[in-house]
Each structure stands twice: as C-alpha cells, then as structure tokens.
Specification:
ProC C-terminal domain-like fold, elongated, 8 strands, binds (2S)-3,4-dihydro-2H-pyrrole-2-carboxylic acid, 283 residues, 12 helices, eight-stranded mixed beta sheet, oxidoreductase, binds 1,4-dihydronicotinamide adenine dinucleotide, Rossmann fold, alpha/beta
C-alpha cells in the first residue's frame, strides 16, 4: 500500500478552526484533492459546513448517516473536536472503524491510552499537536505514534504534517509541553503583537503604521533567528545598547517580572492540557 498522503481519503471529525487550518494548508500545498477530504461536524445543514464546501470544494456533512459513510470510506480519521466532546465522538466512531484505518488526534491532552481505552480496539493511533499556522504552511507540529502504527503509516502521517510546516517526533509524554509551547504559542505571539501595536497608537501613531511596524518587527526577528542560526539571547544583546532605549524597556519588563510570568503561563498551558486529557473517558 502506498504511503503517500495525496492518495489518502481523510475524514476530519470536527470541522472547527484547526481542521480548517489543516485542510487549507494541505490543499494550498497540493498534498490532497478536495474530493478526498471530508469535514464532518455535529448538527445538520450548518452554514459553516456550506461555507467550507464552497470555499475548499471538500465534502462536508453534519448528518449522522453520511458522516458514517465518510468515516467508513476514510483511510485516516483526524479527531479534531474539543476535549470535552472527545468521548462522545470516539464512541460514535467506534462501530465505524476498522484496523486498516488510522486515527490522527490533534486534541490537546488526549492520550493514546485513553483513545485505545474508549475504542476498545487496537487501532493505529497518531497523537499530534499542530498549530494554526499550518494554514499557510508554517505550522509547527509535535507528533507521537502508538505501537500499532506501521513504518508506512508513520511516513503518511509525517508527510501530512511536513507538507504544512515542520514536524518534530517526540515522546508522547512531551506532547503537553509541545501544546504549551507551539500549540498555544501563536496566541502568545499575537498577544505581544497586539500590545506592541497598541503602544505605538498610544504614542501617537495611526493604527496602520503601528501594525505595519509591528508585523515587520516580528517577521524580521523570527527570520534573523532562522537565517543567522544565532541564539535569540545573542541577537537580543546586539539590539541592547548599554544604558540605551532597549535596556530601559527590558528593565521595565523585569520590574513587572515578565519572564517569570511568561514562563508560568507556558507551563500552565501544559498543565491545562494534562488536566483536560485526564477528564476524558472518566465520566
Ligand atoms: N485551535 C487551535 O489552535 C488548536 C486546536 N487543537 C485541538 O483541536 C481540537 C479542536 O479545536 P478547535 O478546532 O479550535 O475547536 P472548534 O470548536 O473550532 O472545533 C471543534 C468542532 O468539533 C465539532 N464537534 C463536536 N462534537 C462533534 C461530534 N461528535 N461529531 C462531529 N463534530 C463534532 C464542533 O461542532 C466544532 O465545529 C481541540 O481538541 C484542540 O485541543 C490543537 C492544536 C491547535
Ligand atoms: O486552546 C486550546 O486548548 C487549543 C490547544 C492548542 C491551541 N488551542
């Protein structure tokens, strides 16, 4: 059997933000045919599903019968519902699955053991933590495989996520930390961008000018790290003239214990992933 992702039929169980990000990324990179992708949601003819069909040309369904058919026909089932909806979703999937298919979960905190426990069958399970930048091919995904995943299936899953960004294979126990760092990470970056723009506006700039300067600053800084290979701490020191403006700003951040707060925030996200995961299947 071919490992190539383009030949696979993929059913996304849950048609929310991350499912759309993955679909858009795969289609943009021509790693999937729209006719091989189905986006399945709860509820009948929702406006969201119709929009997804119109925008991407994919198959969509919120109707239990056609949802079942799309799942049964699929090679890969991407579980993309909120943690709170996982148990119900897995119980709906259970009678429809066979061992030649592969489950690819993107759910924060949900362990391979919990998935296997709810399904009560030995399916190949891939646990991942992508992020929404996958939409534009700049995703960062952490990935771990259950013992049942064959080498071929690993290649298929890796190809899927490599086509929309970088992929890092990790021990499953690290995936909650991956969630804190890169799964939730884009939100921290957007938050910083919001603050930088707002400060520019407060200083007297118009919104557009502040936003243009902010976006280019983030793009430039990320590219500097990637293209020079230099340590961010060294690059930071090069911006920071002794007793200059940057030092003055960093002193204020230290006064507000920004580093400590930020570190706590990321670790709290990881903890939260574990907490959410622990509630699944314990009803
Ligand atoms: N949004 C993000 O940046 C990321 C999210 N994730 C994970 O992806 C999962 C989904 O997150 P989002 O896309 O943000 O959520 P979302 O709320 O946008 O989408 C979830 C979708 O699942 C549907 N759904 C719920 N129960 C269902 C069922 N039984 N059958 C079919 N569809 C059902 C809902 O109607 C909703 O459209 C979460 O578990 C989250 O941890 C992972 C990485 C990044
Ligand atoms: O906020 C959340 O729970 C999800 C997981 C990673 C990003 N969004």
């Amino acid at each position: 059997m071919s490992a190539s992702i383009i030949e696979k039929r993929i059913a996304f169980y849950g048609a929310g933000s991350i499912a759309e990000a993955l679909v858009r990324g795969l289609l943009a990179k021509q790693k999937a045919w729209p006719g091989n992708l189905s986006l399945l949601n709860r509820g009948g003819k929702s406006e969201r599903l119709q929009n997804l069909r119109t925008t991407y040309g994919v198959r969509v369904s919120g109707n239990p019968e056609s949802k079942q058919r799309f799942v049964q026909e699929a090679d890969l089932i991407v579980l993309a519902v909120k943690p709170v909806d996982c148990e119900t979703a897995l119980l709906e999937l259970k009678p429809l699955l066979n061992e030649n298919q592969m489950i690819v979960s993107v759910v924060a905190g949900l362990t391979i053991e919990t998935i296997e426990g709810i399904l009560e069958m030995s399916m190949p399970v891939v646990r991942t933590m992508p992020n929404t930048s996958s939409t534009i091919g700049f995703g960062a995904t952490g990935i771990a495989f259950s013992e049942r995943v064959t080498d071929h299936q690993q290649q298929t899953a890796l190809e899927m996520f490599e086509s929309i960004g970088t992929v890092t294979v990790v021990e499953e126990s690290l995936l909650n930390v991956v969630t804190g760092v890169s799964g939730s990470g884009p939100a921290y970056v957007y938050f910083l961008m919001e603050q930088l723009t707002a400060a520019g506006v407060q200083g007297g700039m118009d919104e557009e000018t502040a936003r243009t300067l902010t976006v280019q600053t983030f793009l430039g800084a990320a590219q500097m790290v990637q293209l020079t290979g230099e340590d961010p701490a060294d690059l930071r020191r090069k911006v920071t003239s002794p007793n200059g403006t940057t030092q003055a700003a960093l002193d204020v951040l230290a006064e507000y214990r920004f580093a400590e707060g930020f570190n706590r925030a990321v670790l709290r996200a990881s903890e939260r992933a574990a907490e959410m995961g622990a509630t699944i299947g314990r009803k």
